[in-house]
UniProtKB/TrEMBL annotation:
Phylogenetic classification of the source organism: Eukaryota, Metazoa, Chordata, Craniata, Vertebrata
Pfam families, alphabetized: MARVEL (PF01284)
Gene Ontology CC entries for this record: membrane
Recorded topology in the membrane: Multi-pass membrane protein
Segments passing through the bilayer: 34-53, 59-78, 98-118, 124-144
Main location: membrane
Domain MARVEL: 24-151
Iron-sulfur is among the record's keywords: no
Identification of the protein by name: CKLF-like MARVEL transmembrane domain containing 7
Entries under PROSITE patterns matching the protein: MARVEL
PANTHER family, per the entry: CKLF-LIKE MARVEL TRANSMEMBRANE DOMAIN-CONTAINING PROTEIN 7 (PTHR22776:SF89), MARVEL-CONTAINING POTENTIAL LIPID RAFT-ASSOCIATED PROTEIN (PTHR22776)
Amino acid sequence: MSHTVITSSTTGCSSGESLLNLGYSRTIPGLLKIGQLLSLLIAFVCVCLAGGWPYWHALQFFEVVLLWFLVAFLIFFLMHLFRLQTRMPCINWPLTEFFHYSVGSVLLFIASTAAAVGCGGVSSLVVASVFGFIATFLMVVNLWTSYSVACGPPGRPPPPSTSPPSSSGVDPFLCAHVNF
């Protein structure tokens, strides 16, 4: 006995997929992004609520780095949540996130170290630097897990070229970016 299922959509999506990908928030990368967002938000709120910064320049650098990566990770999270990366295929999103995590983990580690050194015993600044280190750890874990997606598994040769070999014996893709 066969059954026929007819579905209708009022959202305008013809592929049968919903606009919101709530399943992403339950995956490991989604949970890591939520953890990063929460730790960066807690650190930013602690820095903002601290009265009298002992080392103003170090803590201002920490605050700027926190705010930048909080906004960037919120954009990445919303991008995955609303499946925006499928609508912009011209950007290599895994590689973009990989580079963002690599630069972010270094900058946030430096900023968290500067905040820990310059906190002057102010408890909210100590908590902010601890949450900065937690966010750094989560970024490194996310960087490590996203490495195989962005760069391929280690020890595996690159895929063969699909272009025909040139008559000179030189691969045209190797010379395409060299200016003579």
